[in-house]
Design brief:
heterotrimer; A alpha+beta (121); B alpha+beta (490); C alpha/beta (411); A: 121 residues; B: 490 residues; alpha+beta; 8-stranded mixed β-sheet; 23 strands
């Protein structure tokens, strides 16, 4: 079966066509580099996505601190991860790279702060 | 619930209701203005061309003609008293052919009969010198016409009335009027008002209120007109309102009008509607507006378009013939205590205070009016930062550092002005209310930069929750809640 | 009146990169003027990742990308003022700004204009209908959600498949809103393919090409929109109208470089880009006034913005040393296959980067740069999209002394 993908690994966004039989790639065209093959294999086996969202922060110069995962997680875990992240509340100050939650939704990915928030008052 | 007791209840806080309140507040009367929306000027008072008319298209002897000439003559003084931006720009009515010339000459004659001063027929050269953008082969020049901001004018009238003791009630739609007890008992919003006088200034809803007052038989017809607003860059090309020659009945089609703030309005066109709430812009009419507008204003181009809106002029018509009739300001001996205003459409803005004085006159016909010694006709609006000389801007910041924070960058409106608007004397708290008091969100980015800041300032200043912020009407919530609720007590 | 060698107006990614490049090339008497409370510009609200893939070989969020530059600015103590809004600039490089401390007046030797862009509005595209609450441009919705902790709505329709709209489709969905569909006027998407994949396909949000919103309903709060298919002239096709009940309409219908200040200084703009006409030093028609970033041309990759700002900085350095007396008389023009080219004129004496966008998607084609009817440079692409800016380095030694340059895409 012929499957089409837009690779999201880098901004080029290659249009990849893969011939897939029994979940295995038998032929592949359109990728500019090997990462495209890895991407399609991953998409077939277990599509991974990163998520970026916000966490409530108290005592800071902003009401929310932006966060993201340190690695992509299985697509199916996106909403379970969001549910866990939505319950978090942290206190300023926080630094970029600070881990707010480890092993989010059991995926092994950690939640990182992506914007420094200073403490007020 | 106890009735609120007043001497006069005015229904409608458009420019007419606000002007009536202001004129009545000169006297020792307890006055209430009942407005169904959340601010003044929510009907046609904020949906018109903002022109101070000269008075050359109205039938001599009509109220429209008399009140226009009166209102036009006094407006420099009025604008000064009420701190309303106004420019006596003049107006040109342009023509292209013989029929246009015939109509223009006819209206020059009518204008002169009505007492309009300075009307001249001018040629293409003179037209070009007055305004190089105006299209036309010849024109009538009316030097006394002018431009003003109708929202600012209505707000100024209302604030002056309020400062002089009139009470304003918003979200107070009149649902029933009963006069079985000799006083008028008015149900409006969640309250009841008991009053000796009721003044019907309900504009587009004047017939409905008239019926509630027990006066039947009046009819109004809605003539809807759409407008385009052009960026101030277009405004630099147009100094003076440019109108096409009136048709034989005196009606104008699409004009190009500079606003007092430097934008250009293209419109209105004219088509019938039967819905008092019909303010939607339509695709069908936009194309016509662009074509007609281009004839009046050579510099029209797509890049200049920043907004459109629509207004409706509810004209009093003869129920039998459909003929369009004059303003009506009536009292009835069998219905004492009512002043019924029907069909106050264009030139209602120009005629507002003259009409208000005639309403006062109707009341004075029936009872002694004691002047209020403390009445102060002067009202100050919000002190602007934009357009001021440098020294003045520095002084404003020195006195209030909030003048040093720009909130609306397109129109250069500062935090100090936004705060003044949030804390306005009438207690209005909508985003549109702030817009109309300051011009914030009216620039090329239409709130893209400042709306987030205005929402934050409303919450900070008034302690409102985000779900309580309203755009314009009741129910016009901007936000559905927080992204993250703070259930975590510190 | 304070004197500065260089004033940078706008502390977003372009301004930050320019400041650092100026500093590293010996120009240290600089001042960044930023109207927000923090440096970082629009990146502060772009909390999604995908930034820095080219420059840092990492997939960073917007704030992280910005912080790399901000940390360096702080480490080097490069001066900046926040909460300061510039309200006027002149051709002779005077700057007037408003701050809580009062009016600030500056005289600079060179100005770097890096003010970014604004969003196209409903009013500018004249969508008919009523004016209820609930209509937001995508960037404003993004600001409410990511910075102000405020949710604009629950049942969303998006007009425009620009990147910001696509990002917001995902953002809104992650925060519990229901995004019903994205409608795009053109027959192809306006945003990057990877955003179509990650923001729409991943969440089963349908994309309808060649569609637009023709009516808006609702008196107080939005109640629904009417959508129709459009023909090749973008006119709605009768009979294709469909109503979509919703409480929120997000508009992602284009970005416009914010050049009001540039115009005040008499800078000439390119009517196609709405940004300034520039030469190969990113200098505008006013000597000593330079531009880079979204205020010059709307970019899709912040990595290109930083690089462009760095080249602009080098142009400023040369200008300050009076090195730029070369005439930039070679004009560059694209044909109908190209929407715009930047720079619009070059000296022919230095290497430069040509930025351009194709006017429509195409496969297996070549971008050809011609001078005097000869192809002097060419680059082939498997595919080109209007959503993806193309940048081609052009070496000075390829250029003849005279003869305007033409650029086209040949398939």
């Amino acid at each position: 079966m012929l499957k089409k993908y837009t690779c999201i690994i880098c901004p080029i966004g290659c249009d990849i066509e893969a011939t897939v039989e029994q979940d295995r790639i038998v032929a592949i065209t359109g990728n500019s580099c090997p990462k495209g093959i890895d991407y399609v294999s991953q998409e077939l086996a277990n599509p991974l996505r990163n998520i970026a969202t916000s966490v409530l922060i108290q005592n800071g110069d902003l009401p929310l601190v932006s966060v993201r995962l340190d690695r992509p997680i299985p697509k199916a875990e996106i909403f379970p991860a969001m549910t866990e992240i939505k319950q978090l509340c942290v206190t300023a100050p926080v630094q970029i790279g600070q881990i707010l939650l480890q092993n989010v939704a059991g995926t092994g990915a950690n939640l990182l702060v992506t914007k420094p928030v200073r403490a007020t008052g | 619930m106890k009735d609120q007791l007043y001497d006069v209840v005015i229904i409608g806080a458009g420019v007419i209701g606000s002007a009536v309140a202001r004129e009545l507040s000169r006297y020792r009367l307890r006055i209430a203005v009942l407005e169904k929306e959340l601010d003044v000027a929510c009907g046609n008072s904020s949906r018109n061309t903002g022109v101070l008319h000269g008075g050359f298209t109205y039938r001599p002897g009509s109220l429209k003609a008399e009140c226009t000439v009166e209102g036009n003559r006094e407006f420099d003084q009025v604008a000064k008293e009420l701190d309303v931006p106004f420019k006596r720009s003049g107006k040109v009515v342009v023509g292209f052919n013989d029929e246009d010339m015939r109509n223009i000459l006819k209206f020059k004659q009518i204008g002169e009969t009505n007492g309009v001063r300075g009307l001249e027929i001018i040629d293409k050269d003179r037209l070009y010198r007055i305004d190089a953008s105006a299209g036309g082969e010849f024109a009538m020049y009316s030097p006394d016409s002018g431009i003003l901001n109708p929202m600012q004018y209505t707000i100024a009238l209302a604030e002056n009335a309020h400062a002089n003791g009139a009470d304003f009630f918003f979200a107070s739609e009149v649902t029933a009027i009963d006069n079985s007890t000799g006083r008028y008992r008015i149900s409006a919003g969640d309250k009841c008002f008991s009053s000796r006088w009721v003044i019907n200034c309900a504009g587009m809803n004047c017939v409905a209120i008239s019926e509630m007052l027990g006066i039947s038989g009046h009819q109004v017809k809605g003539f809807k007109g759409e407008y385009f607003v052009l960026d101030k860059k277009a405004g630099q090309y147009l100094n003076i309102p440019v109108y096409p020659a009136p048709n034989a009945k005196g009606g104008f089609s699409t004009h190009a009008t500079p606003t007092i703030d430097g934008n250009v309005l293209i419109g209105p066109d004219s088509y019938l509607t039967d819905d008092p709430d019909d303010f939607a812009a339509t695709r069908e009419h936009m194309q016509g507006l662009i074509e007609d507008g281009a004839k009046m204003f050579k510099h029209i181009k797509r890049d200049f378009f920043i907004r459109n809106f629509a207004g409706t002029r509810w004209k009093r018509v003869d129920p039998d013939t459909g003929e369009i009739l004059d303003f009506l300001i009536e009292t009835r001996t069998d219905k004492p205590g009512i002043v019924n205003l029907i069909g106050i459409e264009s030139p209602g803005l120009t005629c507002a205070l003259p009409i208000a004085r005639r309403v006062v006159g109707k009341i004075r016909d029936r009872e002694q009016l004691a002047p209020k010694p403390s009445f102060n006709p002067v009202r100050r609006g919000i002190t602007p930062f934009a357009g001021q000389p440098r020294e003045r801007q520095q002084a404003l910041i020195n006195a209030d550092p909030n003048y040093g924070e720009i909130v609306c960058r397109c129109e250069t409106i500062t935090k100090a002005e936004i705060l003044s608007a949030i804390n306005n004397p009438l207690g209005v708290v909508t985003v549109t209310g702030i817009k109309n008091r300051t011009r914030a969100t009216m620039g090329r980015c239409q709130g893209g930069y400042c709306e987030t800041r205005i929402a934050a300032l409303i919450q900070e200043t008034l302690g409102s929750k985000e779900t309580e912020i309203r755009y314009q009407h009741a129910g016009s919530y901007l936000f559905t809640g927080k992204v993250r609720e703070d259930d975590h007590a510190a | 009146m304070q004197h500065k060698q260089v004033i940078i107006i706008g502390g977003g990614p372009a301004g930050l990169a320019a400041a650092l490049e100026l500093y590293h090339n010996g120009v240290t008497d600089i001042l960044i003027l930023e109207r927000e409370k923090h440096l970082g510009g629009i990146l502060r609200q772009c909390i999604h990742d995908g930034f820095g893939l080219l420059r840092f070989k990492e997939s960073l969020s917007g704030p992280e990308y910005a912080q790399r530059f901000i940390d360096e600015i702080d480490r080097l103590h490069i001066p900046y003022l926040t909460d300061v809004t510039v309200i006027d600039i002149t051709a002779d490089k005077k700057v007037l700004a408003v701050s809580k401390q009062g009016l600030l007046e500056f005289q600079a030797e060179a100005l770097a204009l890096t003010m970014g862009c604004r969003e196209r509005t409903r009013g500018a595209i004249s969508i008919p209908g009523t004016r209820p609450a609930g209509i937001y441009t995508a960037g404003v919705a993004q600001s409410y959600i990511n910075l102000a902790n405020t949710m604009p709505g629950k049942n969303v329709v998006i007009l425009g498949s620009g990147d910001i709209g696509l990002i917001m489709a995902r953002r809104l969905t992650l925060e519990g809103a229901q995004v019903k569909a994205v409608f795009e006027l053109q027959p192809y998407p306006s945003g990057l393919p990877r955003n179509i994949a990650q923001c729409l396909n991943d969440y089963d949000i349908p994309l309808f090409l060649s569609h637009t919103v023709i009516d808006i309903k609702g008196r107080s709060r939005l109640e629904g929109v009417t959508v129709a298919a459009v023909d090749e002239n973008f006119a709605p096709i009768p009979g294709t109208e469909k109503d979509y009940p919703c409480d929120t309409l997000i508009l992602s219908v284009g970005l416009i470089p914010e050049n009001e200040l540039s115009l005040q200084a008499g800078v000439e703009l390119d009517q196609r880009t709405k940004g300034a006409l520039v030469d190969d030093s990113y200098q505008t028609s006013r000597p000593g006034i330079f531009v880079a970033g979204n205020v010059l041309q709307v970019h899709d990759l912040v990595d290109f913005v930083s690089a462009e700002a760095e080249k602009m900085a080098l142009g400023i350095v040369a200008y300050l040393h009076s090195d730029s007396s070369q005439s930039t008389h070679l004009t560059i023009r694209g044909d109908a296959s190209i929407t715009h080219t930047v720079p619009q004129r070059v000296s022919g004496k230095k290497d430069f980067i040509l930025s351009l966008r194709p006017s429509r998607p195409a496969q297996n084609c070549a971008v050809q740069i011609c001078q005097n009817e000869r192809v002097i440079a060419t680059q082939t692409f498997r595919k080109v999209l209007p959503a993806e800016m193309i940048q081609i380095p052009v070496a000075a030694n390829l250029l003849a002394e005279a003869g305007d340059l033409e650029v086209r895409i040949a398939c």
